[in-house]
Specification:
The complex is a heterodimer of chains A (about 110) and B (about 120). Chain A is mainly beta and about 110 residues long. Chain A is built from no helices and 9 strands. In chain A, strand 3 and strand 4 form a beta hairpin. In chain B, the strands form 2 sheets. In chain B, strands 2, 4, 5, 6, 9, 10 and 11 form a 7-stranded mixed beta sheet that branches. In chain B, strands 1-3-8-7 form a 4-stranded antiparallel beta sheet, with no helix packed on it. Classes of the chains: A mainly beta (about 110), B mainly beta (about 120). Chains A and B meet through strand 3, strand 7 and strand 8 of A and strand 5 and strand 10 of B.
Amino acid sequence: QSALTQPASVSGSPGQSITISCTGTSSDVGGYNYVSWYQQHPGKAPKLMIYDVSNRPSGVSNRFSGSKSGNTASLTISGLQAEDEADYYCSSYTSSSSWVFGGGTKLTVL
Amino acid sequence: EVQLVESGGGLVQPGGSLRLSCAASGFTFSSYEMNWVRQAPGKGLEWVSYISSSGSTIYYADSVKGRFTISRDNAKNSLYLQMNSLRAEDTAVYYCARVVVVVAPNMDVWGKGTTVTVSS
């Protein structure tokens, strides 16, 4: 199972919106609404930010939103804040009962 | 407080073995499926293995199949990963993660990780 494709880095200024893409195949991202997104600060464990494409766990800011079109999922962060600077990983449960992650995107808040 | 705490990491020579543990607290461990996920230094996340709540269903990533064994002891609220025939490329931080299913299975609680270094 190949890793999902994410941009290596994105950046934005405080208050702006950014979008991180995550491209897979019909066996993962495109085939099911099984996409999740994780935030990871340096030296910390990943934190679930979005599940089942577009749902936010309790406690996650509504500035985070997710969507999907075809084989590409997207994470949008609006009203960018300094604390959002982190690595972001997409993940998909696959048709072979496994999980695949994207390579990660480093978000820099300018 | 819902918590997962990994232990058992360390330095091991290539070809050696190590057993990781993950202690769960703050929730009914026996009701949840669990995963191991690893992260090599400076790299991304990689799913390693899955175990169902009863332990009856198990899956492995191709990269560890035949070398790693996942297990759990619900009476002890503990998850394990037995790692044999270790290779340099197994060097990583290993996280245990709770799996929760709404529509899809998602990893909603993660431990802080334990570091495994395979080197001579």
